[in-house]
Amino acid sequence: MINKKSTEDLSTEEKIKEAARTVFMKKGYSATRTRDIAEEAGINLALLNYYFRSKEKLFEIVMMEKMQKLFGGLVGIVTDNDTTLEKKIELLTIYYIDMLTQNPDLPIFVLSELRNNGEHLIKSLPIGNVLQQSALFKQLQVNRPDINPLHFIINILGSTIFPFVAKPMIQAVGNLNPKDFETMMEERKKLIPRWIRSMLQTK
Amino acid sequence: MINKKSTEDLSTEEKIKEAARTVFMKKGYSATRTRDIAEEAGINLALLNYYFRSKEKLFEIVMMEKMQKLFGGLVGIVTDNDTTLEKKIELLTIYYIDMLTQNPDLPIFVLSELRNNGEHLIKSLPIGNVLQQSALFKQLQVNRPDINPLHFIINILGSTIFPFVAKPMIQAVGNLNPKDFETMMEERKKLIPRWIRSMLQTK
DNA sequence: GTCTATAACCTGATAGAC
DNA sequence: GTCTATCAGGTTATAGAC
Fold it and tell me: In angstroms, rounded to a whole number, what is the distance separating the alpha carbons of residues A70 and A164?
């Protein structure tokens, strides 16, 4: 546990950033007050501006981190020239479900803030070109030249990410407690790769 | 066109509600100022409070409408005892893609506000019981008794709704202009029912 | 670097004239 | 019903002492 520093050990700057992650994630940009962040960090409001100049600058740092966390992880998998198409689908599924089980609020945060306060941040991530030129894209194109590969990417991400975006709704509809929800997501790790495989074979 | 009144013809109360729909939908609850709504409605700020007492009351009216619009439409389809499972899947797909093409920002609005300001509103919609006792649920259970029917519901909704939730990301990744995006969604109306069918057959 | 105090502005809501 | 004016409180950001 050498990497897991307790809050008291962190530098002031890092304490503020950590508090900002927590509060922005929970409330979104607009509903967050800098006072909330200062309180969460256990420091004074003035220090926040001393280190980060403004609420918006601090938000952009957090937002970039979260976008990276949501979309950065897939790069290593999709660009690997040594894995089969089927293996990539399996790895993506497991990666996303595990990562989102640890960070269930990540996608709704990123996707909703992207629309409200950060559409200009999309261009910062070169994820578009990476994906278009990836091994996965080419493999999909070879397998199903009749269908835009983007459809399959959407399906993989939709199958894994959507349940977390709609989590409150799904829990209500299915009468699921948090443990039930996690169990279902665990089931999906096996089901989704099978489903995507069958999609690829369906003419 | 007898139902389509121009803005000037509406009652003041309806003008304010219409403006509230527009502004809340665009900015979300927290980022919306009652002054924005008043201006959009072409009336004075005081009138908003005269008709609706508070920002929150007005928001709840809009939010209930939007939840109804997002989830109410599926009730008629899933409870129909006279359509086959396959027909229901086709109808749900077409219904959602058409409706969301007209209202692309609806799902991200509802799902993100649900988390921030309206989790207590979920219970207002009896969608949970309706779905659990629906013909669709029973048909899924008969077809695949080995898999929780909720998985398939999530897949149908995920395939149709997720692309709209992630729209800015998808457009950036795929280098799509709005017309391209619509074309892809149109393609999905044919593809998704095929995919779900093949899922149901995949052991 | 860290704090207190406060400036400068914004926001939801209401009072009161018409 | 509709308006103008304004209140009371909140919000970001900074000045200035330590």
Answer: 12
